[in-house]
Amino acid sequence: MTAMTDTQSDQGFHPSQLIYDTRYRSITIQIIALICVLAGFGWLINNAVTNLAAAGQDFNFDFLGNVAGYDINQKIIDYDSQMTHGRATLVGLLNTLLVAVLGCITCTVIGVTMGVLRLSNNWIVQKLATVYVEGFRNVPVLLWIVLTMGVMIKLPPDPRAFRSGDASMILWDSVAITNRGVYVPRIIYEAGSSIVVGVLILSIIGIFAFRRLARKRQEATGAILPVFWVSLGLLFIPVIIAQFVMGSPVSLQNPYFRGFNFTDGVHLRNSLIALWLALSLYTGAFVAENVRAGILAVSKGQTEAAAALGIRPRRIMNLVVLPQAMRVIVPPMISNYLNLTKNSSLALAIGYMDLTGTLGNITRNQTGREMECVLLLMGIYLILSLGISSLGNLYNNSVKLKER
Amino acid sequence: MTKSVFFGALATAGLLAGAASAQTLAEVQERDTLRCGVTTGLVGFAAPNEEGEWEGFDVAICRAVAAAVLGDGSKVEFIPTTGSTRFTALASGEIDLLARNTTWTFSRDVDLEFEFAGVNYYDGQGFLVRKDLGVTSANELDGATVCIQTGTTTELNLADFFRANDMSYEPVPIETNAEAQQQYLANACDVYTTDASGLAATRASFENPGDHMLLPEIISKEPLGPLVRHGDNAWGDIARWTLNALIAAEELGVTSENLEEMAAGTDNPEINRLLGSEGNLGEMLGLSSDWAVNAISAGGNYGEIFEDNIGADTAIGLDRGLNAQWTNGGLLYSPPFR
């Protein structure tokens, strides 16, 4: 083959070589494919522009500055119907972030627990974990979301049942579980509460400092300090003293029933709870499989060696197996977090006002700016996902095998 | 990989290209069916019956237009749309006509680029509550949880109403009427709000309609009507004048019973022009001369359609009210057929 091409190159370049000469063929095919793809996209964009012009619609984002006119039930920042579509979009984005962050935390906890339990030696525990994983992993998440919402609406009593005495609040009258959501106490900060909060922050810093000290001490002398109990004490005792000394500036306001609904508490809407729960359980099943795979990827010799050194089983898991398993677990975890964040857009099905609900639904529909809204929506989700994966990659770099 | 991307792009571009055409009449005639957007299910206005046939007040408009254009009121493909998908469906050319309790507003007409063919039901936004809630006026709803369908004018009216009256409320946004019913009946919301006619229809489908009532306040004007895309005036004229033909037929006393007899020719020149025995109105629309006869025979005149689907004798039991002929103190007033 080489000999043949060599003789051809001596005779100068001929166009047929673009197809028949192996040196050029792959480049030729790639260039043709590239031109086709670019032409396809060009036609697509041209088509959209022509059709928008034919329908008499321009392409601009001015509508984001117009008054939205609609209300949003769950708002983390201040919002009312007289604010702009841009503000409504921001409220929706924060709601998306809220459910994504909550979901990522709980799916990790559920997933790690279930993944470890699937490897348990206890037959019942192991099978229960298997049923959980297979059950959630193999049913579309939309169905889980709708089912959870249906249960949240049908099962708990409605708020009026609390007035008539057919239902009562739990945990010393502080939490009301209704079919409109769960009402929990609100924290009230009065004068002097900044000192209590300051003490809390100092305590947390103190805990980290103590843990560092304990680790250094252990590395130097081998003596193990009672880290857990000291941390617990550091967290609670100073804050309780500060609260007592300042005359209870931080207090809890229980929700109470007035008019149509509970007021004065924090309202966790059932759309938030349903979405959060369903996404966590669904993604947790995938996380569990990743964790199981990661643990199984650690050679059995590691466990046996640790056992031979006399380390207790729980410590073997925490100190020997899991740190090594993390290298296998972390990369697919990032993609699970991404999935959870993107799946949160199914909130539309149960009326949770996330980014898709505000910008992608109401704003799009009231302004008629489909193209702009959908492109903006895609752009925001893209940035969100890229942000999550770069954070994940940072963490991955810190735990991955470092070759020195 | 690159190949599949390319074909994907081709397919998408093909879909987009469908939207640009302005020849709706020719397309409908060639396809031999009318694609009509209706609600996902609102008894009395548009819902499938036991046999799976769509029927209702809005459905009758679809059938009348199909009959006028194709000569057969059954040549309709009904496409259920939600409050938030309907405009996209119409703008993209997925449907030819939207008859889905859609309020005629300035921004929908001018900014969203649609053409309203007229008003087939004069409505207003109302509130449905349980009688045992003890509320007798919408002004007592401070703090209530309200179920609303998203993507509708009711959402905006509601925000305005509560703001103007300095009251607070908890909106529960819902995609379809069926889900709203489910939440309302489970007491997950105190109030369900939408157009009063829709509330009456919804209430009629409850197990115990007597336990629920409409509050007296009507907080908005909601002229509901069929609509088409901007830019195809010939098709817009067909929709507009089919609706007018149904209204004029009632005014002139043309019913599905005496239709054949009147179509043969009468002493009244206006009836003759409407039914095609005199003049060439059908030809001007690009339709056959008996277009209006076909439209009326599909479901009767406006009054008959009203009484059959949502009138006082049906479970929904709506009075004619504003929807009576102008001669009876209502607002229905068809321009002359001349």
Summarize the model shown:
The complex is a heterodimer of chains A (404) and B (338). With 404 residues, chain A is mainly alpha-helical.
Keywords:
heterodimer, A: 404 residues, mainly alpha, MetI-like fold, three-stranded antiparallel beta sheet, two-stranded antiparallel sheet, 14 helices, 7 strands, globular, B: 338 residues, alpha/beta, D-Maltodextrin-Binding Protein, domain 2, five-stranded mixed beta sheet, three-stranded parallel beta sheet, 14 strands
Report what the structure shows.
- The complex is a heterodimer of chains A (404) and B (338).
- Chain A has 404 residues and is mainly alpha-helical.
- Helices cover 68% and strands 6% of the residues of chain A.
- Among the domains of chain A are: 2-7 and 16-54; 85-159 and 270-399, MetI-like fold (Orthogonal Bundle), CATH 1.10.3720.10.
- Chain A has a three-stranded antiparallel β-sheet with strand order 1-2-7. A two-stranded antiparallel sheet of chain A has the order 3-4. A two-stranded antiparallel sheet of chain A has the order 5-6.
- Chain B starts with a helix and ends in a 29-residue tail after the last helix.
- Chain B has two domains: 22-122 and 224-328, 3-Layer(aba) Sandwich (D-Maltodextrin-Binding Protein, domain 2), CATH 3.40.190; 125-220, 3-Layer(aba) Sandwich (D-Maltodextrin-Binding Protein, domain 2), CATH 3.40.190.
- Chain B is α/β, with parallel strands linked by helices and 338 residues long.
- A five-stranded mixed β-sheet of chain B has the order 10-9-11-8-12. In chain B, strands 4-1-5 form a three-stranded parallel β-sheet. A two-stranded antiparallel ribbon of chain B has the order 2-3.
- Chain B is 39% helix and 16% strand.
- Chain B is globular.
- Chains A and B meet through helix 3 and helix 13 of A and helix 1, helix 4, helix 6 and strand 10 of B.
